[in-house]
Amino acid sequence: MPEMLINAEPSENPADKIVRHAALLSEHLQARREQMYPPKAEKTLRYFMTNEVSKLTSIPESTLKLMSNEGKGPHPARLENNHRAYTLAQINELRQFFAEQRPTDALRFQPHRRKDEHLQILAVANFKGGSAKTTTSAHLAHYLALHGYRVLAIDLDPQASLSAMFGAQPEMDVQQNETIYAALRYDADRKPIKDIIRPTYFTGIDLIPGNIEVMEYEHETPRVLAERSSGSQDIFFERLRLCISEVEEDYDVVILDTPPSLGFLTLGAIYAATGLLVTVHPAMLDVMSMNQFLLMMGDLISVIRNAGAVMRQDFLRYIVTRHDPNDQSQVHVVSMLRHLFDDDVLTPTAIESAAIETAGLAKRTLYELESGNVAAATAKRARESVDAVNERILALISESWGRT
Ligand SMILES: Nc1ncnc2c1ncn2[C@@H]1O[C@H](COP(=O)(O)OP(=O)(O)OP(=O)(O)O)[C@@H](O)[C@H]1O
Ligand SMILES: [Mg+2]
């Protein structure tokens, strides 16, 4: 009998087929996932070559080579081809070294915020699923850390995709009372935020991971609000802001990746934010969904204001994501957005790119790719696009600090 007839039983009915197909597909996807991202694999950050270090730090390549030859500063590893390879920690050592050597120019080398510059809390939001909130959050976090900023990334999404990108698998690596819920909860098991912050493999970025537990906050908050007598309660939407302020000194920028819903956590994030980034895929359905989001947000902002609270945001920007500039319908949507919202739509856009998607499947950002991971030209184009978006966001942060 020919082989194909053994698998496909002629008498199989559609219902049985669904069961068989589900098992087949699950097995196939699981195998693929394990191949791309072995469950036990510890994430590590790649090395950076001299030219890249020079670009990131504005220290000339010749100076870096001279220092290394003279044994000054960090000792980069040598690759087989004898090229120098620096870790991000070593790049930060260089920053520190130059900042101390040249105090008048210190900020250029080590851009940490100064006493009179406030912590920037950026909420990446839009309740439309798949608008690239997590991708945007991860790329921004990596970009800022590569440029010497101290970043805290907080995963407010029960799906925990951001945590997974930082190597914290929500089902395996995040236990009970280890998510932001632990710091926000209303009962005696509440923990200080310091206790749930974990360092990541990406030097300069700390993480508060998420998993399904963060949903608890959505259930508990309305119950607590109903139970408590008015007046004695701390205002629920201030909780996130208050707990972030416990660790304010340790960071320059906090990035909040929100879930595709407008619940109490997202509300807390919008209230805590000093900068709001609304990601939008330029398709009409997405824009209609964003309209709902903005209307609901408007209502919630009124609630916050009526409670006597003040919102202190430095900026709001729409970021066009998964942008295909050759798609005519997208061109229309983007020009409509720019017409309506003007400069509030970020000029650079994040282009739709196979490089970003492929990296995402391996739980990576473009910043983690070694050459050879994806077709070089594709990766370069995507990287330029994402760099431009992040550069603009960093400029907004710098402006809010009064830096020119
Ligand atoms: N510029 C891009 N080019 C190609 N694919 C992209 C791009 N940005 C994001 N993606 C892919 O789109 C999918 C959705 O992105 P992402 O998870 O960041 O969206 P999200 O808004 O966080 O979703 P959710 O609402 O479920 O949290 C992912 O598979 C991601 O890899
Ligand atoms: Mg997400």
- Provide the CATH topology of the largest domain: Rossmann fold
Return residue spans where pLDDT drops below 50 for at least 5 consecutive residues.
1-6
Distance between the termini: 77 Å
How much of the sequence lies in strands comes to 5-15%
Helix and strand pattern:
HHEHHEEHHEHEHHEEHHEHEHEHHH
Number of strands: 10
Main sheet: which strands, in order across?
6-7-5-8-4-9-10
The CATH homologous superfamily name of the largest domain equals P-loop containing nucleotide triphosphate hydrolases
Rounded to the nearest angstrom, the radius of gyration is: 23 Å
Count of individual helical segments? 16
Distinct small molecules: adenosine-5'-triphosphate, magnesium ion
CATH class of the largest domain: Alpha Beta
Averaged pLDDT: 91
Proportion in helices: 40-55%
Q: Given the C-alpha coordinates, what overall shape results?
A: globular
Q: How many structural domains in the coordinates?
A: 2
Largest sheet: 7 strands, mixed
- Which CATH-level-2 architecture of the largest domain? 3-Layer(aba) Sandwich
